[in-house]
């Protein structure tokens, strides 16, 4: 993965790299912000660094983005299903620290993840995104993901039904 320029407003450099076990604490902080924001996950309870370390134990593709030496975003891909026919399908998530939103860090993280997932043998990435998460949907469109459809009333968050927009991209073509 290579270093890339942030948007002019950021006035800094973004560096993309494979995540390392030592990043678990900061990744956890960023993920917990996302949980608190209620815009990107059905999760309601904070995670611990130990929870994130399990991702590294499992060998998941995980790209991180640093801005001025501080980790500000990450993207991770989990296996979609255990059945062998889905071996190359990964479900991804992208999270950006509040202070880095709108700087291109999410785009850099997802681009880095696409590279890592390809190297890991993936042929497709997909995600479920809340319809209200306009930034995530715009990012996915920008990077060539297509909307497949919407799961209606997919789950409850804080007692309210939430829909999920499904996006996918073939990455081995």
UniProtKB/TrEMBL annotation:
Superkingdom of source: Bacteria
Key word Transferase present: yes
CDD domains: NAT_SF
InterPro entries: Acyl_CoA_acyltransferase, GNAT_dom
UniProt keyword terms in alphabetical order: Acyltransferase, Transferase
Domain N-acetyltransferase: 14-172
GO MF term set: acyltransferase activity, transferring groups other than amino-acyl groups
Pfam families, sorted: Acetyltransf_1
Protein name (database record): GNAT family N-acetyltransferase
Organism: Stappia sediminis
């Amino acid at each position: 993965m290579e270093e890339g320029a942030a948007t002019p407003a950021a006035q800094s450099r973004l560096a993309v790299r494979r995540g390392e076990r030592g990043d678990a604490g900061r990744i956890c902080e960023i993920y917990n912000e996302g949980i608190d924001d209620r815009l990107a996950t059905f999760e309601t309870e904070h995670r611990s660094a130990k929870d994130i370390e399990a991702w590294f134990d499992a060998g998941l593709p995980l790209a991180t983005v640093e801005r001025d030496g501080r980790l500000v975003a990450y993207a991770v891909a989990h296996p979609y299903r255990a059945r062998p026919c889905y071996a190359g399908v990964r479900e991804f998530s992208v999270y950006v620290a509040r202070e880095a939103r709108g700087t291109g860090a999410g785009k850099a993280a997802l681009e880095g993840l696409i590279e890592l997932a390809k190297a890991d043998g993936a042929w497709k990435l997909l995600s479920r995104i809340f319809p209200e998460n306009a930034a995530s949907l715009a990012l996915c469109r920008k990077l060539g993901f297509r909307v497949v459809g919407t799961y209606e009333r997919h789950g409850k968050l804080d007692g309210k039904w939430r829909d999920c927009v499904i996006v996918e991209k073939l990455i081995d073509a």
